[in-house]
Specification:
The protein is of the alpha+beta class. The protein has a single domain, classed as Cytochrome-c3 Hydrogenase, chain B (Orthogonal Bundle), CATH 1.10.645. Helices cover about 50% and strands about 15% of the residues. The chain has a three-stranded antiparallel β-sheet. Strands 6-7-8 form a three-stranded antiparallel β-sheet. The chain has a two-stranded antiparallel ribbon with strand order 4-5. Helix 4 packs antiparallel against helix 5. The radius of gyration is 21 Å and the shape is globular.
Length: about 350
């Protein structure tokens, strides 16, 4: 070991994340040679808590697994329960679920790209992206009464209908946001400051992405065309016309461009939901609970969310387990950070859009 080689602790409290994760870095000068990641600092035992609550109460619990993708958890949990009970939800409820999910996806992706500008040091771009995101936050507050947890999903459908006036309002907001996001995308695609800090950095080659089983924008930024909304359509996604953005550069920049392109695709899905919204009820009645097991999966902003439930004939599940996308993407950081500069750690970490709270649950 040379005088330039040493071990460097980073975290568990650090500038790369607002949540506690510990990185043990083997550094040669300013270059990272090896990474060990240690998490588990904020484990909450939520899967055990779920067995102490009934099926309806767990809708609220699962929505608090995470903040930015909270709707995805209650959405997927509700589908798992509906699968185990044999409930067929109304068509209008399917459209309303997709509408809420895509609204959350836009806000989540814009938040991640804004934080990237913040870490780079591009403060004016950070403020601009957050200002545009605020328009979608206004949509969430106006339509659902909350800026983070929408509390829209329930077993059998959705809790509240969305009026024609609110659907018109959502479309108007999307029309305002579309050119603003297109401008932001152009900045991320061409600005020399952004490109200098993101292009060719944090490489995750396609073969490593396949080997590690990464999901979401991390996978699509490494050339893997996998999206649960397309590959295994659920809710009303089979009725939606949209593309799955895929980039082959395998770096921070490609993952960023995937997210910004997905925002534009989400705008199209939101508009389709608003214009094609069918009439009808928004909930289906509960059915008798029996001994059974089922699962469900969906495409959250960070990637595939998977829920498994086993019932025992009572209203409290015998087992509820979920797998979140950040759990799959964490291990890829050891590949992305290898041979990169210590100064790039925060950017590389942000590029997988990690969520510690839902990973450690």
């Amino acid at each position: 070991m040379s005088a330039q080689t040493f071990s460097m602790p980073l975290g568990p409290v650090h500038v790369a994340l607002e949540e506690p994760v510990y990185f043990h870095l083997d550094v040669d000068g300013e270059t990272i040679r090896h990474v060990n990641l240690t998490s588990g600092h904020v484990h909450r035992g939520m899967e055990a808590m779920a067995t102490q609550r009934n099926l309806i109460q767990n809708t609220t619990l699962t929505e608090r697994v995470c903040s930015l993708c909270s709707n995805s958890h209650s959405f997927t949990y509700s589908m798992a329960v509906e699968n185990v009970l044999g409930i067929e939800i109304p068509v209008r409820a399917r459209y309303l679920r997709v509408l809420a999910e895509e609204i959350k996806r836009v806000a989540s992706h814009l938040f991640n790209t804004a934080i990237q500008a913040h870490v780079i040091g591009f403060k004016s771009l950070f403020m601009h992206v957050m200002e545009v995101r605020e328009m979608m936050q206004d949509v969430k507050e106006t339509v659902y009464g909350n800026r983070m947890n929408l509390a829209s999903n329930c077993i059998g459908g959705v809790k509240c209908d969305v009026s024609p006036e609110l659907l018109t309002y959502i479309r108007q907001q999307v029309e305002k946001m579309r050119p603003a996001v297109a401008e932001i995308r152009d900045i991320y695609a061409t600005n020399s400051m952004v490109l200098g800090r993101t292009r060719g950095i944090g490489l995750l080659p396609h073969d490593d992405a396949v080997r590690l089983g990464v999901v979401g924008p991390v996978a699509r930024g490494s050339g893997i065309a996998h999206d649960v909304r397309k590959d295994s359509p659920y809710a009303a996604y089979m009725d939606m016309d949209f593309n799955v953005p895929v980039y082959d550069d395998c770096c921070i920049h490609s993952r960023t461009m995937v997210r910004l392109d997905e925002v534009m695709e989400s705008f199209g899905i939101i508009e389709q939901c608003c214009t094609r919204m069918p009439d009808g009820p928004v909930t289906a009645p509960m059915r008798q609970i029996h001994v059974a097991e089922a699962c469900a999966r969906s495409e959250a902003p960070r990637g595939e969310v998977f829920y498994y439930i086993r019932t025992n004939g009572t209203d409290m599940p015998e087992r509820l387990k979920w797998r979140v996308p950040s759990y799959m993407n964490w291990e890829a950081l050891s590949v992305m950070m290898r041979d990169c500069a210590v100064a790039d750690v925060a950017l590389i970490t942000n590029s997988i859009d990690p969520c510690v709270s839902c990973t450690e649950r």
